[in-house]
């Protein structure tokens, strides 16, 4: 967890990756063990708990933020105080449910980059089967920009 906390600002209960598996110059891989005690299972759906799709998407976005944190470090941009912020979601497709006890693998790949905007694709697999595919964009926002919004 310390490895994740050094890279991104997310913390429990809103942290949806628990291990970084790999970071390269073109993407990243992480995993999440879906714990039955996650509080959202109490209400989504009682008696038949399913991990919410929006939280699956969030795990992909957080993996993308881990990737950007390493990319910025490589490019020596860590002197600027920036945060990767979600700016666009495109074509999210949910193919299988994720249930308590599942261990999912999350991957992101860099598409293209335009200045401070990064277009990425991501997917989640459970036991080798795709649960989610999504395209999204992250932008690097300086701390002073966040304060003025």
Plain-language structure description:
The chain is α+β, with helices and mostly antiparallel strands and 149 residues long. It has one domain: Thiol Ester Dehydrase, Chain A (Roll). It is 23% helix and 41% strand. The protein has 3 helices and 6 strands. The chain has helices at residues 2-7, 53-74, 143-148, and strands at residues 19-23, 27-33, 82-94, 103-114, 117-126, 129-142. The chain has a 6-stranded antiparallel β-sheet with strand order 1-2-4-5-6-3. A hairpin with a 2-residue loop joins strand 5 (117-126) and strand 6 (129-142). The longest helix has 22 residues, at 53-74. The protein starts with a helix and ends with a helix. The model has no long low-confidence stretch (mean pLDDT 92).
C-alpha end-to-end distance: 30 Å
- The proportion of residues forming helix, as a percent range, comes to 10-25%
Total number of distinct structural domains: 1
Uncertain runs:
none
Numbering strands along the chain, what is their spatial order in the largest sheet?
A: 1-2-4-5-6-3
Number of strands: 6
Order of helices and strands: HEEHEEEEH
Structural class: alpha+beta
Please give the CATH architecture: Roll
> How many strands, which pairing sense, and closed or not: the largest β-sheet?
6 strands, antiparallel
- How many distinct helices? 3
Shape: globular
Average residue-wise pLDDT: 92
CATH superfamily: Hotdog Thioesterase
Fold-level CATH name: Thiol Ester Dehydrase, Chain A
Rg: 15 Å
Which percent range describes the beta-strand content? Answer: 35-45%
Which CATH class applies here? Alpha Beta
């Amino acid at each position: 967890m310390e490895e994740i906390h050094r890279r991104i600002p997310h913390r429990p209960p809103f942290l949806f990756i628990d291990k970084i598996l790999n970071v390269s110059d073109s993407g990243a891989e992480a995993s999440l063990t879906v714990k039955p005690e996650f509080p959202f299972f109490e209400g989504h759906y009682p008696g038949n708990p399913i991990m919410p799709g929006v939280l699956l998407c969030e795990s992909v976005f957080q993996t993308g933020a881990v990737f950007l944190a390493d990319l910025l470090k490589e490019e020596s941009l860590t002197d600027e105080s920036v945060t990767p912020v979600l700016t666009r979601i495109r074509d999210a497709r949910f193919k299988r449910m994720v249930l308590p006890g599942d261990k999912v693998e999350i991957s992101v790949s860099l598409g293209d980059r335009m200045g401070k905007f990064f277009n990425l694709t991501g997917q989640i697999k459970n036991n080798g089967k795709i649960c989610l595919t999504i395209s999204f964009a992250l932008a690097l926002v300086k701390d002073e920009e966040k304060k003025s919004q």
